[in-house]
């Protein structure tokens, strides 16, 4: 199976490195020709994945037509760009493995739903889990969820993507796998705020647990399964992203907690902090589904510029309730 990777940011490049394990050929599409040039000539992507020597069997291109020869495509652009990028790609009936984490603004569609609408003939899979790109690219042990409804394709993709340090766990719950990855980014911003404002470790653990309850409520309402939400793509990724300044979402939250504005913090970045885009869409989607998500709502308010003390105070002052609700 010839693997193509769409998107040459940190995660696309790390996944290309995994797929190139054993010197297998992999083709990666970069929007920026300079990134493609760097990968081909220096076997490195200094802009998005510095200090990692890439396999020479990774070939970079910047013409979408060059992806036509691939057997399966990993989609790894920022979530808000998936629709526009996929519309330019020669997909046909090639499987699309969605690796981006988010919900599309305006339509409130998960990335898999965006892909299905543009390429209805392409089977869909989702790869998601606790995966800092620089660790995966450095060959550190990592496990992910690989979701696909078609058993034969699920098996084939798992076998092709697995490597000695990279272990996929299979499921047919595509929706559940997508929702965990999208929502954990919003919750990670909240945990970063707790860190930045010096609110303590107890508060961070409480936010992870109550945030997981929100993720589960929303995931079940959208048709995901509880076991998936409690797995690598849900709870696993939530714990990782809510615990480390290596997370772009967590570090955005740290800045907010220190009193800086979202606009100022986002203007400083080349790389994507998906939670900032997902939060307002999630707020709308939760209202539409009738799901109560007070922690995610608090993150929206903080991104909109509300004061940390006021937002945390309001969260704590809500009427007392039973834990399972
Ligand atoms: N970095 C990680 O550790 C990691 C791990 C798992 C999943 N993800 C997810 O993968 C996706 C990509 O993240 P990343 O870390 O590779 O991002 P990144 O910020 O490192 O790189 C983004 C890439 O997308 C390109 N890009 C930006 N805007 C674009 C547009 N409008 N159209 C086309 N291309 C565009 C950039 O040129 C760049 O190549 C995100 O949804 C992220 O949540 C990231
Ligand atoms: O740096 P972040 O916050 O985008 O997180 C990266 C990955 O999604 C972690 O699994």
Task: Name the poorly predicted regions.
Answer: none
> How large a portion of the residues is in β-strands, by DSSP E?
5-15%
Q: Mean pLDDT across all residues, rounded?
A: 97
Q: Please, how many domains? A: 2
* Major beta-sheet overview: 8 strands, mixed
Binding site for sn-glycerol 3-phosphate: 101, 129, 131, 184, 237, 247-249
Main location: cytoplasm
Binding site for substrate: 101, 248-249
Active site: 184
Question: Can you walk through the features of this model?
Answer:
By secondary structure, the chain is of the alpha/beta class. The chain has 2 domains: 3-172, Rossmann fold (3-Layer(aba) Sandwich), CATH 3.40.50; 180-316, N-(1-d-carboxylethyl)-l-norvaline Dehydrogenase, domain 2, CATH 1.10.1040. Helices cover 49% and strands 11% of the residues. The protein has 15 helices and 8 strands. It has helices spanning 10-19, 33-42, 82-86, 111-118, 133-137, 151-161, 174-196, 201-221, 226-229, 232-241, 248-257, 262-267, 274-289, 294-303, 308-316, and strands spanning 3-6, 26-29, 58-61, 72-75, 96-98, 124-128, 142-148, 166-171. Strands 3-2-1-4-5-6-7-8 form an 8-stranded mixed sheet, with helices on both faces. Strand 1 (3-6), helix 1 (10-19) and strand 2 (26-29) form a beta-alpha-beta unit. Helix 7 runs parallel beside helix 10 (232-241), helix 7 packs across helix 13 (274-289) and helix 13 packs across helix 14. The chain starts with a strand and ends in a 9-residue tail after the last helix. The model has no long low-confidence stretch (mean pLDDT 97). Bound molecules: nicotinamide-adenine-dinucleotide and SN-glycerol-3-phosphate (G3P). The site of SN-glycerol-3-phosphate (G3P) has 13 residues, from helix 7, helix 10 and helix 11. Pfam families: NAD_Gly3P_dh_C (PF07479), NAD_Gly3P_dh_N (PF01210). NADPH binds at residues 11, 31, 48, 101, 133, 248, 272, 274. GO terms for molecular function: glycerol-3-phosphate dehydrogenase [NAD(P)+] activity; NAD binding. It catalyses: sn-glycerol 3-phosphate + NADP(+) = dihydroxyacetone phosphate + NADPH + H(+); sn-glycerol 3-phosphate + NAD(+) = dihydroxyacetone phosphate + NADH + H(+). InterPro entries: 6-PGluconate_DH-like_C_sf (IPR008927), 6PGD_dom2 (IPR013328), G3P_DH_NAD-dep (IPR006168), G3P_DH_NAD-dep_C (IPR006109), G3P_DH_NAD-dep_N (IPR011128), NAD(P)-bd_dom_sf (IPR036291).
């Amino acid at each position: 199976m010839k693997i193509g990777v769409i998107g040459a940011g940190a995660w696309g490049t790390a996944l290309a490195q995994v797929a190139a394990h054993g010197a297998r050929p992999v083709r990666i599409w970069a929007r920026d020709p300079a990134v493609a040039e760097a990968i081909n000539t220096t076997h490195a992507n200094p802009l998005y994945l510095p200090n990692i020597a890439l396999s020479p069997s990774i070939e970079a291109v910047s013409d979408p037509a060059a992806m036509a020869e691939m057997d399966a495509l990993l989609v790894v652009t920022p979530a808000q760009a998936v629709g526009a990028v996929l519309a330019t790609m020669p997909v046909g009936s090639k499987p699309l493995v969605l690796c981006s984490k988010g919900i599309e603004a305006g339509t409130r569609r998960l990335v898999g739903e965006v892909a299905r609408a543009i390429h209805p003939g392409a089977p869909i899979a989702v790869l998601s889990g606790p995966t800092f790109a620089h660790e995966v690219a450095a060959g550190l042990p990592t496990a992910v969820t690989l979701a696909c409804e078609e058993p034969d394709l699920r098996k084939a993709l798992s076998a092709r993507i697995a490597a000695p340090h990279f272990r996929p766990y299979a499921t047919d719950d595509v929706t559940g796998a997508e929702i965990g990855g999208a929502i954990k980014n919003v919750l990670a911003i909240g945990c970063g705020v707790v860190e930045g404002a010096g609110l303590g470790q107890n508060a961070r653990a409480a936010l992870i647990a109550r945030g997981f309850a929100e993720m589960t409520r929303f995931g079940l309402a959208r048709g995901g399964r509880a076991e998936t939400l409690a797995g690598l793509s849900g709870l696993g990724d939530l714990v990782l992203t809510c615990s480390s300044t290596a997370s772009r979402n967590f570090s955005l939250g740290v800045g907010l907690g220190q009193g800086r504005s979202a606009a100022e913090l986002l203007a400083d970045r080349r790389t994507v902090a998906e939670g900032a885009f997902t939060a307002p869409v999630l707020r709308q989607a939760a209202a539409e589904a009738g799901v109560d998500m007070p922690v995610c709502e608090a993150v929206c308010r903080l991104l909109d510029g509300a004061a940390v003390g006021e937002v945390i105070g309001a969260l704590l002052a809500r009427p007392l309730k039973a834990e399972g609700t």
